[in-house]
Amino acid sequence: MTVDLGMPAGAAPVLAERRKTRQLQVGPVGVGSESPISVQTMTTTVTADINSTLQQIAELTAAGCDIVRVACPSADDAEALPAIAKKSQIPVIADIHFQPKYVFAAIEAGCAAVRVNPGNIKKFDDKVKEIAHAAKDHGTPIRIGVNAGSLDPRLMEKHGKATPEALAESALWEAGLFAEHDFHDIKISVKHNDPVVMVRAYEILAEQCDYPLHLGVTEAGPAFQGTIKSATAFGALLRQGIGDTIRVSLSAPPVEEIKVGTQILQSLNLRPRKLEIVSCPSCGRAQVDVYKLADEVTAGLEGMEVPLRVAVMGCVVNGPGEAREADLGVASGNGKGQIFVKGEVIKTVPEAQIVETLIEEAMRIAEEMGEGVEEGESPTVTVG
Ligand code: SF4
């Protein structure tokens, strides 16, 4: 028997059309309005430690990372780039500060792109011609990555601080220098730790150029605060169709950044949804421990690749209604759980068996969905 997921044909609705941009390729990953928004992060290993770096990249790849960036502060790191670029399963971007010579090393190493920070590369403007030629010869895109903490001193003097206008002006100035050498394979970021400043800076950029934009709130903080800052800032921009690739910055392992970035895009239907737990906040009517139930179901279904929505509701007041809207759900009460599949009660089980029953049913549905799920569809499971 197959489960009728009742999903509408075609892509899920989104809040805004993407802003039209130039298109570029970071290895096999397209960046620009013609491509899905990609999620990236940065390794935390010493790049020169090739094995550790590749191991971390493998973990990030498994978590859904599309593009990875590695720091390159020393000659040893630069020497490691060819091996890392060759063996990584996802495109590798070299992150260069201070030393222009490493820009050329990264391009020669076969990195999929290079990030430069015009605010702290010595005499960067004088090097643009050479960099543009080398990058063009190798088909290597450049990210102009302006950061509030290392803004070009000339602009700091002009604007007094890292205002949105100063950030945008720095990036557009550098992009203009590359354009003078007929190099346009550029994406831009203008990061600030204040989401309001950051959002405004990207809005200015979006009005004034058609380069793809890499979104990021820099130094966003520990996981909780950083997640909220990134989600609100990215949401404000994605609502306007602004943003072609994203990096969530957290004081937490990079895998967490990928999880948050992926979830932000999934929440806005900008990436096909996978497992989604719809659980109620609980209240005085709850007849089960909703938090525990939701945690156990989430843990039991971790890694599920099909777009499955599971609703976990705390009582029979709203439970059945919500459960009906999902692919799978449970409505709890009187020590029992009514298990719903696509709105129909398929069985009632004792409370102690709710989690295992839901997981069993989810696995069964997932297996049946395996072949027939189109990108953009988002089946649901409800626990209530
Ligand atoms: S589903 Fe029930 S327990 Fe959960 S918040 Fe709503 S009324 Fe409260």
From TrEMBL:
[4Fe-4S] cluster binds at C280, C283, C315, E322. Belongs to the IspG family. Keywords: 4Fe-4S, Iron, Iron-sulfur, Isoprene biosynthesis, Metal-binding, Oxidoreductase. Residues 21-261 form the IspG TIM-barrel domain. Pathway: Isoprenoid biosynthesis; isopentenyl diphosphate biosynthesis via DXP pathway; isopentenyl diphosphate from 1-deoxy-D-xylulose 5-phosphate: step 5/6. It holds the Pfam family GcpE_C. Its cofactor is [4Fe-4S] cluster. Binds 1 [4Fe-4S] cluster. GO terms for biological process: isopentenyl diphosphate biosynthetic process, methylerythritol 4-phosphate pathway; terpenoid biosynthetic process. This is 4-hydroxy-3-methylbut-2-en-1-yl diphosphate synthase (flavodoxin). Converts 2C-methyl-D-erythritol 2,4-cyclodiphosphate (ME-2,4cPP) into 1-hydroxy-2-methyl-2-(E)-butenyl 4-diphosphate. The keyword Metal-binding applies. The keyword Ion transport does not apply. One of its GO terms (molecular function) is 4 iron, 4 sulfur cluster binding. InterPro entries: Dihydropteroate_synth-like_sf, IspG_bac, IspG_bac-typ, IspG_C, IspG_TIM, NO2/SO3_Rdtase_4Fe4S_sf. HAMAP family: IspG. Its EC number is 1.17.7.3. It catalyses: (2E)-4-hydroxy-3-methylbut-2-enyl diphosphate + oxidized [flavodoxin] + H2O + 2 H(+) = 2-C-methyl-D-erythritol 2,4-cyclic diphosphate + reduced [flavodoxin]. Residues 276-362 form the IspG C-terminal domain. It comes from the Bacteria.
